[in-house]
Each structure stands twice: as structure tokens, then as C-alpha cells.
Amino acid sequence: MSAYIIICLAAVAVAGLTFFAGFGLGTLLMPVFAVFFPVKIAIAATAAIHLANNIFKVLLVGRHANLRIVLLFALPGAFAAVFGAMLLNWFAALPPLAGYVLWGSEHAVTVEKSIIAVLIMIFAAMELAPSCRNLSFDLKFIPAGGLLSGFFGGLSGHQGALRTAFLLRAGLDKNALLGTMVISAVVVDISRLAVYGATFFRRDFPALQEQGVIGLIAAGSLAAFIGSFAGARLLKKITLAGLQKMIAVMLFGLALALGCGMV
User: Fold this and answer.
1) β-strands 105-109, 98-102: how paired?
2) At what angle do helices 111-128 and 25-36 cross, to 10 degrees?
3) Contact, 167 vs 183, CB < 8 A?
4) Residue 210 host element (H or E)
5) How many domains does the chain contain in total?
6) Nearest to 182 by CA among 19, 68, 62
7) Full residue range of the structural domain in which residue 195 is found
8) Residue 235: is its pLDDT beyond 60?
9) pTM for this model (two decimals)
10) How far is it, in rounded angstroms, from Cα 109 to Cα 260?
């Protein structure tokens, strides 16, 4: 029950924060799931909520998408997401690098957790740094951007910062940009979830049902809808620098705990 309360509250807050704090849903929600579940399950569960939330957004702004740009960006992204997701599955199967006992509890440092921890730090820094937030690339690099965004989306769930950077220079107005980004995110989410579902999600499904992960995904998706609605209505995309810094510090702390095997 505590996991339901914490994850649902986090999903509401995180979905609302995405409207004004600069961070994406996956960046903020995945570490919360990782407190309760293995990293690979946390990434897959967050991907499912991310997909549900983006489908909701497609209903709102998807009609404005530029389908040519979607094809140039999302198709390479979907291809790369499959490889990123397969690599995550491979990392998860590797033996621990080290183990230790702290305050009577056993902890393991794994390749999977170490890589995801480093990626959380990198992408948290990218979301926070003004130079990175304003980063953009020439239109000719859109397919390459799709590959990079999709790969990291499949590996760790971090795709939003790269997706924005590569689509900003596509010459789209605000509505077309939002619609294009949302549909591209849905395509990548479907690709990586297909791999997650065919590998560790299917393999661990009985245990996941027993731990209530499926119910948590449904509850988290509903909570994210509520958070998105509240964020859009109340926050009006206001950027609060102090809150951004606080979130970044928390993400760095969670990443350190994850990399050290404490989470």
C-alpha cells in the first residue's frame, strides 16, 4: 500500500512538474519506481506510464504533428530503442561488480545500476544547464537525433532532452512541435515496451503480479493524467529555477544511492 501511495503521489507531482520545472516524466518518475523495484522493472513500468500519458497528449495536440518530421525522427528512434532495450536486458543479467553490508543489510553494486546512475546524472545536468536546455541541431541531423534519443530511451528512459534538442530546429510552430514530439515519443515507447515485454517483463510477470506492479502502472497512469491536467491548468509552464536546482540535487542523490547499490 505504501508503494501505491508514494508512486501515485509522485506521478501526480512529476506530471505537473514537467510543465514548468524542465524535467521529463521519465527522468523524475523512474528513480521513484527504482526505490521499490529492480532498475529494469522501474524503467519498464515508467515507460508504460510515459506511453499512457503521451497517448493522452496525442489526443490533445497530435493533430498538429508534422508527419514528415515524425517519420524522419521516430522511425530511426524506434529502431534504436529496440537495441537500447535489449542492451538493458543484457546489462541486467550480468553478475554484480561488488557487494557489501551496511547497517545489517546487504547491497550489491551492479553494471546495470551503475550505468543507469551515470545516465541519470548526465541527463539531470543536461536538463538543468541553460546551455544544454537551449541546445539545438541542424535539420539534417534529425534522423541521427532519432537514433540517439531512441537508444537512450530504450536503455534508461531518458529521451526527452535529446528529442527536444533535435526537433527545435525543424522549423515547426509551437503546436506542430508539441504534436511531433508527442507522437515521436509514443512510437519510441511502443518499440521499447515491446522488447521489455518480450524479455524480462514476460519472464518475471508472475512475480510482478504478486508485487502489484501492474496495478501500480494503472494507478500511476491515472495519477499522471491528473498531474498533467493540473499542471496545464494551474502552472502555465512557469519556470522556477530554484525548484529545478532542488530536483537536480535530489536526482543526483538518488543516482549516487543507485550506483552504490543502496537502492
Assistant:
1) antiparallel
2) 150
3) no
4) helix 205-211
5) 1
6) 62
7) 2-259
8) no
9) 0.81
10) 6
